[in-house]
Amino acid sequence: MSYKPTIVAFLCNWCSYTGADLAGTSRMKYSPNIRVIRVMCSGRVEPTFVLKSFREGADAVLICGCHPGDCHYHEGNYKCLRRYELLQKYIQQMGIEKERLRLEWVSASEGKIFAELVNEMTETVAKLGPCTVRKVMETIS
Amino acid sequence: MRTFGKGCEEFYTLSSRKNIKFLMFDQENELPIITKAAADDNCDLLIEMNEKLSGKTIEIPADMVILMVGTEAHENVKDIAHTVGISIDGNAFFIEKHPKLDPVATTTNGVYIVGTCQAPKDIPDSVAQAKAAAARILATIAKGSVTVEVTTAFVNEEIFNEEICCGCQTCIKVCPYTAISFDAEKKVSVVNEILCKGCGTCGSGCPTGAIKCRHFTDTQIISEIEGLMSMSLLMDAQES
Ligand code: FES
Questions:
Q1: Which residue on chain B is closest to A72 by alpha carbon?
Q2: Is the pLDDT of residue A64 over 80?
Q3: Distance between CA atoms of residues A10 and A40, nearest Å
Q4: Residues of chain B with CATH 3.30.70.20
Q5: With a 6 A CB cut-off, is A11 part of the ligand 1 pocket?
Q6: What's the pLDDT at B39?
């Protein structure tokens, strides 16, 4: 059996979630490895959520928000970007490869881009193999 | 060949009777070529095209050719979209809240879109949409009150809970709507739920978890993660 990664995705309600919805309504096919969690804005994505996902066994985490300047709440995505940069440094120190966490901008009309993004990310993560955080944490406790 | 919209078929028949010919060409293969006619052709221009229905290449003599250009969005739409907080699509037309369930409203309350700012359309369609938007606005006014967002944030006030506001005021700095103020007497932040739009940025910034975002609380999202992941693990186990 080939290895199937699990990707947890946080999509902002106004752009990326609608974009993902568009991919669905236009019947685009993309890999089923993604688990979507809707948040009102990418600014709502707490670092805790990302770490918790890795802890629970996610192989990668994807955060999608509106394009810079297009956030429904004006600047939530900029706040997300700042948190993301710090989080990238942090997860790398914990031994999680930086490819496992991604922040991308997907607008409401970019269903195709979303589908391609998911496929491409699944491929990259499949090459990296399973994320070991969950196992390590289980051994420790 | 069929026309678009109610009553347009009649126009088509009428103009066909007046000897106007409608020809189709294959958009993907070849566009019609317009050349200057030779002196003995008895006309100014020659149009050479691949007619789609017959599949033949034909030549049409013409005295004048008028090219009709497509509709383009106005160059300022981006600024307008940013100012009122609505989205635009790949061709820079405004996007409605939902193509079927809410075709005139936008993602910003109280902002409605009508006519060709949304997509190229004809006058009857624009008028119909304008009426719909007017009806929506009247409905809001007639109600006499405005329903605020349900997903607003609030500050936890139970003092016996460890998730209590420590007065660091991080939330006040991150709020894009200045909806949070500081109660100097109680030394806690207070959310004005009428101004709050529910983006949840304060909730992610709060170090103690005192600010909760209705319907998107930390507990709810974390349970979502746990649920999704345990389901994936279960599916993996079943497969192997
Ligand atoms: S609403 Fe999409 S990123 Fe803020």
A1: B85
A2: yes
A3: 10
A4: 153-218
A5: no
A6: 79
A20, B71, B91, B94, B105 from B119: Cα distances, Å? 22, 8, 9, 8, 14
Q: Report the alpha-carbon distance of residue B62 to residue B76 in Å, rounded.
A: 38
Whether the pTM exceeds 0.80: the reply is no
**Measured between CB atoms, which of B95, B199, B226 is closest to A76?**
B199
In chain A, the number of structural domains is 1
Nearest chain A CA: its distance from B82 CA (Å): 7
| Ligand 1 lined by A78 (C-beta under 6 Å) | no
Cβ(A41) – ligand 1 distance below 6 Å: yes
Question: CA of B212: which chain A residue's CA is closest?
Answer: A44
Distance B74 CA to ligand 1 centre (A): 25
CA B88–ligand 1 middle distance (angstroms)? 14
CATH of domain B153-218: 3.30.70.20
Contact call for A57 and B226, based on CB within 8 A: no
CB atoms within 10 A of CB B84: 14
pLDDT of residue B162: 67
Here the CATH number for the domain that contains residue A64 is 3.40.50
Confidence at B191, pLDDT banded by 50, 70, 90: very high
A14, A48, A57: residue with CB nearest B229: A57
Let me know if residue A2 belongs to a domain. no
Judge whether A55 and A137 are in contact, CB under 8 Å.
Answer: yes
Does residue A119 lie within any of the structural domains?
A: yes
Would you call B14 exposed, middle or buried from its count of C-beta atoms within 10 A (0-12, 13-18, 19+)?
exposed
A17 C-beta closer than 6 A to ligand 1: no
Pick among A73, A77, A134 to test the B interface (most B CBs inside 10 A): A73
What gap in Å lies between CA A18 and CA A15, rounded to an integer?
5
**Does residue A1 belong to any structural domain of this protein?**
no
**Tens of pLDDT along B49-60?**
888 888 888 998
